[in-house]
Write the structure tokens for this entry.
Amino acid sequence: MLHRSARHDACDDAVAPLGKEMAGRAATGDIARVEMGIGIRRADGPIGAEIVGVDLSRPVSDETFAAIEGAFTERSVIAFRNQTIDERQHVAFSRRFGELEVHVMQQYLLDGVPEILLVSNVQENGRPIGLVDAGQYWHTDLCYEPTPSRCSLLYAREVPVREDGTVLGDTMFASAVAAYDALPEAMKRRIAGLRALHRYGDRYDAMRSAGSGRDAMTAEQRERLPGAVHPVVRTHPQTGRKAIYVNEGLTVRILDLPEDESRDLLAELCAHIIRPEFRYVHKWQLGDLLMWDNCAVQHCAVADYAPPLRRIMHRTTVRGSAPF
């Protein structure tokens, strides 16, 4: 059996003390190496790094971009601190990694820039301007699409700050690759070849029922997102490493098993993936651009803030290269 950890639906309890400690070391640790004039400061654990010496408001050379992409492939989650970029620059840098997605919930897209999804708790005229509770459960972006996304890039335009200066709203990440590597051989054999159904509408409806204030999905949006079936074990297209590809937020069930067995196995795998040794916790600062690999990691947004504290984030998502 796998080692089980407690499930954190709202993600709040899992932040301390591990997340703060790890994030602090990532922010203050030594630069591990320099490539093409940029520094790469690795976090403890299997994922997470800070890229130092890059101004994304200026053109990024092919050589520098190659070093960034190499660090991203290795560390799965990378952060660029203290960036001052506009929507055009955000989109342009994101496109270096591939074609961009346009999210199906078009009412939360940035006016004039459909590649940017607004993630925000701010309201105007009594309605949220963005997805107010986006990602407040463990998941991977667009796993419910036939071709899941390669990566997501989230830019912090406003962050919630307490009176003592503490920034709230951490984002937690867990390495599905490290989690797979740590599985007992018997479990690896058990899940090899299994398939799982991922669907967006189930979780969306659950969040609305919980009082999130999200708009109801239209019939057209539901038709656009019928769900997708993917292997429980995914092979990373860049590294060739295997990852567990199920999550508590958007995976409906494992199709090849009876319903009760599917439910138990999903719970066991999801608890295993988020064990502390597989995690990195990002503590946001204004101007951060954070990007993550949607094949290699899962993430969860910590909802430890509320109005009048404001949070405005801009997200782009890069399309994957092919089904798998």
